Amino acid sequence: MDKLSLIINNLEEVLTEDDLKNLIRNKNRLVHYIGFEISGLIHLGTGLMSSLKIKDFQKAGVKCHIFLADWHSYINDKLGGDLKIIKETAVKYYQEAFKVCLEQIGGNSQKLEFILGSELYHNNDLYWLTFIEISKNTTLARIQRSIDIMGRKLKEEIDFAKLCYPPMQVADIFAIGANLVHAGLDQRKAHVIARDVALKLKFKPLLDKNKKPIKPIALHHHILLGLAKPPKWPITESELKEILVELKMSKSKPESCVFIHDSKEEVESKILRAFCPPKETLFNPPLDWLVNLVLPIKKEISIKTSEGIKKYKEHDKAKILKDYQNGLIHPLDLKEVLIKNLWEILEPIHNHFKNEKFKKIIQQLEVKKHDGK
RNA sequence: CCAGGGGUGGCGGAGUGGACAAACGCACCUGGCUGUAAACCAGGCGCCCUCGUGGCUGCGCAGGUUCGAAUCCUGCCCCCUGGACCA
């Protein structure tokens, strides 16, 4: 696969592909960034969906960065609003988890670089100037509309610091100098702001090889669905798009998601309980996980169908969907295939975290999980 | 700082001195029905137990009044709406 194909492989959206082609054609150095809040235990969406793309980026010769957003997590009241615990979790657990996930998927964790938010901001006047610049070029209304990037709704009461979060996230991009900004589709609003202000920044614009200001290219991977039934069912495609962010896998609903170090029993029971209507392909979490996560990782899956056992290859996503829609695949068979294959991916990660040195920190986070935050 | 309104279980939201472990809805759990889940039906849903018209804890926090308080009083904290301040 060539550079471009590797980069856009399996992505749900690229803003814009033309910009990306230009960047590659002109032989610019490709600098990637993806940021994460430090909240609870890491789930499949965070750990595996992202790593799956990072692996591709690395293969394409992109320099990859994982940004551990400790300040953002603090602003967003994660981990009991304790900055010290947040930082400790970032360094001792998140960093390790991403390395393990990336290795498991076939990437190179040695080449992966981590950036801690608080370190990026330390003694960094230019960062705050960029922050102001971005804020000057964005309206309050727009920032308010963008707060769903932090899993919050416009209608809920928020403190003012939370409104600083989106411009900070945008400033991170310029501070790091990332021309490839990567995230789940849910982070779209922040990235669009970044692109809109990119050419207006007076102080730290993103530059190409010829020192010309450019817009960062936004690369959005698919967001895995939560396993639960949607609040409204049946649902139309346009309604689904509107509430997709609410339906994504979320740590605040432990039953809706699988964590990267869940036990085999937990994986089994969660998936067996998952919402999974027969022949339904628009909103079907187990099917979604199978075609968007497991298939790209395993590259080949065998599924029991009413026409016997069938093998599906990496690019047979549409074929699986079609067979499911036509009722060739029974929901329970689908679930069983998902459980088996997913566990094969997770087992080494699960085992890695059995090590004594992670016990304490994971337990701490388990407790938080039950506290809801 | 002032005035008014408000803080109830995971969430929303009743309740304004006893029948309140706290209506109702959502979420959640268990069982039944389905080759999964959902829907539907039954039950549960603060903690403890010798499982009872049992004990303990409980309605922002701390005290108080009362035979008895989520409900009344005092102080404190926090939130909302508006006002004041704007040298």
Give a verbal description of the structure.
This protein is α/β, with parallel strands linked by helices and 373 residues long. It has 2 domains: 219 residues, HUPs (Rossmann fold, 3-Layer(aba) Sandwich); 135 residues, Tyrosyl-Transfer RNA Synthetase, CATH 1.10.240. Helix content is 51%, strand content 12%. It has 16 helices and 8 strands. It has a 6-stranded mixed β-sheet, with helices on both faces. The C terminus is likely disordered. The structure holds one RNA strand of 87 nucleotides.
Features:
373 residues; RNA-binding; two-stranded antiparallel ribbon; 2 domains; 51% helix; 8 strands
Structure summarized in a few sentences:
By secondary structure, the protein is α/β, with parallel strands linked by helices. It has 16 helices and eight strands.
Which CATH class of the largest domain is shown? Alpha Beta
Number of helices: 16
Shape: globular
| Helix/strand order | HEHEHEHHEHHHHEHEHHHEEHHH
The helix content is: 40-55%
- The CATH superfamily of the largest domain is known as HUPs
The secondary structure category is alpha/beta
Looking at the structure, the CATH topology of the largest domain is Rossmann fold
Radius of gyration: 20 Å
Overall mean pLDDT: 89
The tally of domains stands at: 2
**How would a crystallographer describe the biggest sheet?**
6 strands, mixed
Gap between N and C termini: 41 Å
Write the layout of secondary structure elements.
Elements (H helix, E strand, L loop, with lengths): L2 H6 L2 E5 L1 H9 L5 E7 L6 H16 L3 E7 H6 L7 H23 L7 E4 H5 L3 H12 L3 H6 L15 H16 L3 E5 L3 H11 L18 E5 L15 H11 L16 H9 L12 H14 L1 E6 L2 E6 L3 H9 L5 H22 L3 H16 L2
Parallel strand pairs: 2-3, 2-5, 3-4, 5-6
Antiparallel strand pairs: 1-6, 7-8
This protein binds one RNA strand of 87 nucleotides through helix 15.
